[in-house]
From TrEMBL:
Regions that span the bilayer: none
Name by which UniProt lists this protein: Molybdopterin-dependent oxidoreductase
Matches recorded under SUPFAM superfamilies: CO dehydrogenase molybdoprotein N-domain-like, Molybdenum cofactor-binding domain
Domain Aldehyde oxidase/xanthine dehydrogenase a/b hammerhead: 37-148
Amino acid sequence: MGETSTWVPEGANQDREDFKVVGTWDHPGRQSWDMVSGAAKYPTDLWMEGTLTAMALRCPYGHAKVKSLDITQAEQIEGVKLVLTYEDEELASMPRYRPAYYQLGASPLLGDEAEFEGDEVGAVVVALNEEICKRALAAIKVEWEVLPFILDPREAAKPGAPILRPEMNPDSNMTGNTFGAAVEWEQGCAEDGFKEADHVDVVDYGRPMWSQFRPMPPAYFSYWANDPWGNPDGEKMCYVTNHAHFPSNGPIVSAFMGAGSHADKYRALSPYMAARYCDFVEKRGAQFAPVLSKRLGGVPVRYVQTRRESFDAAVPQTYLTVRIGYKDDGTLVAVQSENVHQTGARGGYGDKTHGHLVLPPNAQGFKQTVSPNIYSKMAYYVTNGACTTADPGQPQYEPVNLAFAKIADTLKMDVSEVIMKNIKVTEPSLSACMSAAKEAFDWKGKWHLAGERTLADGRLHGVSCRYAASQTWGMISYNINLRMGVDGKVYMPYAEALIGTYWPDAVQLVIAEEMGMKLEDVVVYYAPNYNNWQQGDAADRGSTCTWAAKEAAVLLKEQILAAGAAALGATPEEVDLVDSMVTLKADPAKQLSLQGLGQLAVGYCGKPKVPFQTDVIRTMNVDMCEVAVDPETGLVEILDYVVAHDFGKVIRPSSAIGQIENALTMNSGRALREELIWDESTGVLLNGNLYDYKVPTALDQPKFVPVPVETRCGGGAYGSTGVAHAHANPGLVGQAVQNATGGDFIAMVPYTPDKVLAALGKIAR
């Protein structure tokens, strides 16, 4: 077994054992009724008197340059208010756009070269409504120069491939499409480790480009108004509505509007979000809307994308080849991993992004194993794709678990035993999750060697198991501001978009718990003019919000107790807050209402006291999957899916379980059906619609069994942690398919019938 060590994060509240509201009372989420009733307002729903609509010209080729534009007819269409081209002096003079996380690849806000099919290029139209915008765009006469394009990063890596963005790779000694130098990491000596191994195998794994499906296309809404709040010089304020990552948009918008880094001159209205990750890095809509609004004298402008255009924001491709060496007892002794990864046209997700700062993602998982010898290399390549969003999973665990499955298959071992043997830190989190998952799944009754079980209906039966960890990369500072009003209630404003994790509801529970307030006396409310650039909702970072809320609650409680003690003629140490009343500890019957005690306020900005990056494991989780494979059709059905997730401490039960269920819904789509397909001759997306791009519906959902585990080992409030991305990874389904068929591991997601039949030897590969 791996090392049995326990990590307890510094500053985590491990002392509180009895909870009145945290984890015990699951009130309805503040979003729930609005969303199911249709009352929720999304960016596409925002409208003010005089609102205009803006849309950009989109390139119909995989890579092309505008040779000439004629906008004469477009300008003459009734209802068109403005047509701007890339030759407009103001647009041309604006700072060049850069991806949020990298310094290369600067592009103009509106240029003459389209770097992927659907790219905004050449012209932008502002009109009375969307229909007139579309007519005007169709009336623009464009002469295109079609340029070479590359969709696959493996093709971009080949010597002699067309150089797509030479300025992005000025110093590399590799191919011209390399996005910076390859990222390498080594521990021990992999080649020496292979010499000691009893077995050496190779595991291949690939993910296609796929769409992070969103319920509706994104929209950006901006207007200008005389609003001096927080703005001493009284300049007009720009209100921008966009997705949940506004903290990185604010400085971008500010720079474009000539305000430098003074982002607080701009207010963000963030209503319900239907496109949290769409346009994640590009953010051009957030820039176009205020620019066009200002150009037209401050009138409201909505910048919109169509459903088809929103599909261009895709998750990038990646391909891994992992060579593993292991002993007869299943112990991993050597790993050599090489990854070819796609950054898209602008390097939105290159080697400086999304947790890649220390190790290549394919090394982060292997570093947690007992293997003393690891070599990892990850190269990032420019292609003609948008690739503007991140993979929502934790793909670093896919090759690790595929390696464990390969070891188990070769040595005819139980894969769960291989996992426990090879992971360094098993106690308490991994062991607890593994035990809980086995019991809920009936692992002992269902597990079998590959290809050894057939169901009564003739379908092949398969099961598999994997692990993943919640790590510290998401630990960023958050702002929490609390005030107590004259009515004795505690108020917390927020301005960030809500994307489904219900973090305001969770922090309400934490504040009430920590302060000793009745839950109804803690008022968490949306404040659109509340400018807070570092607050929000981001997947497994929700625990950071709870940490900040707890710390703020501690500070406000100290003030309240000081004021209440003075009124009771006692010291702060002699009183406590109990059910929203200042109570004398020695005589609980003596109480003081908070009403009229005075207005008190406190602010806290911080994060849990844990190291940054992936060297520290917060908590772990174990997934188990059961499938049935039809040997005649190749169709795969997920029969059972159990997730034992260590939440550290569950703050809000329905939020915790809901996050798991949402991730598994995404997982099932990615595993069995979702992939974007381009025409290799033109670079045009072929399935950018909801008819040809198949997302799972409620009728497609398999049986999901979430199993909460609480070890109190997380870095958030009361030892909580966020829900790991890893449940969205589709690889476990492929492992179960291999267990069912007894054939080769299927190297490429999704696991469609043709790939399954090929693994069974019934059709050619």
